Amino acid sequence: MLAQARESIPGPGAMRGGMAAETKWDGHRALLFTPTRTGEPVLLQSRGGALIQARFPDLVAAARQLPDGLVLDGELTVWSQGQLSFESLQRRASAGARTIRQLAAENPAHFIAFDVLQADGQELLQAPYARRREVLEALFADRALTPPWVLCPMTTDLAVAQEWLDSWTDVPGLEGVVLKGLRQTYRPATRGWMKVRRRNTSEALIGGITGTLSRPQLLALGRYDTTGRLRMVGRTTPLKLDAARRIAAHLTPAGSDHPWTGVRFAASWRSREPLEPILVEPDQVAEIQGDTAVDRGVWRHPVRYVRLRQDVTAADVPVVEEDA
């Protein structure tokens, strides 16, 4: 089951029968299946349907703690240097056969469970969320489950959910909340849940655009690192027409000495499609809103353009740290 994006947590009357909120983790969505008969393997399935248990032998081994005939829905995460690391998770998910066990020992995976779709061989898709949550909590209590199995925090107090959104997302690896109706059944491939990501406001330099100089479509954003090199840190979502016109009035075509001359960028995270921007002089500062999914100073998701900051200069834009 999937979630549709919302800008804010809705009021108490938004969903009949009440609402629950869970923390939203920055990991890989996965389903975990324990055997129903002796000799069957533990299966770990990605959101795209691929079987990935071979890349997570530590979770397969730990599944001995779980009962047979169980299907869990949750998030795969990896701890590295005392915090959740999406980069380490990516490395594990794409590891070759020679390095899988070494990476598992160095950066063990955790499965953060937020739903149970089958227990004791009995399907629970038609059970309301409140009942499925009871079964999930009983599983963790009865089995005294410990990491790598983690029970996702849940609350039915929307004030608490707002506090999570405002303060818990300061922690790397937490990016928002997911809202679910207490009476909702589990409907695969349906966007029946809601997700609210925390968005932070910051600044970046406009280093390039797509579209034309008179009608930019999106912005390629940069920040200087501590060595003085301009690094691309993200791109915006498509610009609205009035914003594009205001930006166009301040753009200057770049000269041959632009630091991105000859550099190729990907259109999006993990994409092979190239982004081919028209380079502009990086002298305009854009105020932007981005979520908390940032790796080495780069936003993984497109950010939102807010406005031009004519009151600040490049010296006021945050710097990308050398170890980022």
UniProtKB/TrEMBL annotation:
<dbReference type="InterPro" id="IPR012310">
    <property type="entry name" value="DNA_ligase_ATP-dep_cent"/>
</dbReference>
<dbReference type="GO" id="GO:0016874">
    <property type="term" value="F:ligase activity"/>
</dbReference>
<protein>
    <submittedName>
        <fullName>ATP-dependent DNA ligase</fullName>
    </submittedName>
</protein>
<dbReference type="InterPro" id="IPR050191">
    <property type="entry name" value="ATP-dep_DNA_ligase"/>
</dbReference>
<dbReference type="InterPro" id="IPR044117">
    <property type="entry name" value="OBF_LigC-like"/>
</dbReference>
<dbReference type="InterPro" id="IPR012340">
    <property type="entry name" value="NA-bd_OB-fold"/>
</dbReference>
<comment type="similarity">
    <text>Belongs to the ATP-dependent DNA ligase family.</text>
</comment>
<dbReference type="InterPro" id="IPR044119">
    <property type="entry name" value="Adenylation_LigC-like"/>
</dbReference>
<dbReference type="Pfam" id="PF01068">
    <property type="entry name" value="DNA_ligase_A_M"/>
</dbReference>
<feature type="domain" description="ATP-dependent DNA ligase family profile">
    <location>
        <begin position="111"/>
        <end position="229"/>
    </location>
</feature>
<keyword id="KW-0436">Ligase</keyword>
